[in-house]
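Encode chain A's predicted structure.
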Amino acid sequence: MDAWPVVARLGGEIGQPGESVFVDIAALFATHPAEAAVRNFGDTCRAIAREGNSDKLIESHERRFRRLLASDTPADLSGQLRTWIRLAAGEGAGVNYETLFADLWNWPRYADDIRVQWARSFWRTGEDPAAEGATSSPVEA
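Encoded structure for chain A:
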């Protein structure tokens, strides 16, 4: 079920500065509430993109991930994230919504750093994902 129609009917302030991140995360969580203790959204995307139990990534998912990284603003990310969350639901992959919220909140200031963190997680090769820490960025007010 897509939560966006429900958010709109409830009068969610989609597009209001600062509030859109809260609405985005709430709608994404309502669509797929499965959480996981992954480092960042790049790990979630990797879990979705893997072919079975192998480390080989599905090419179409790699292209979709590149489009996600090319997003300039949290608003640009919104549509891309909805697609990935639906894919996560279909694959049974969990999302670290706390870290995703922090990343979206900080995107206007630290987009390049967040992109690098997500890319490292998505295209990592053989290293232990827990070795680099559990979160990607702190929430700044």
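Confidence is low (pLDDT under 50) at residues 128-139.
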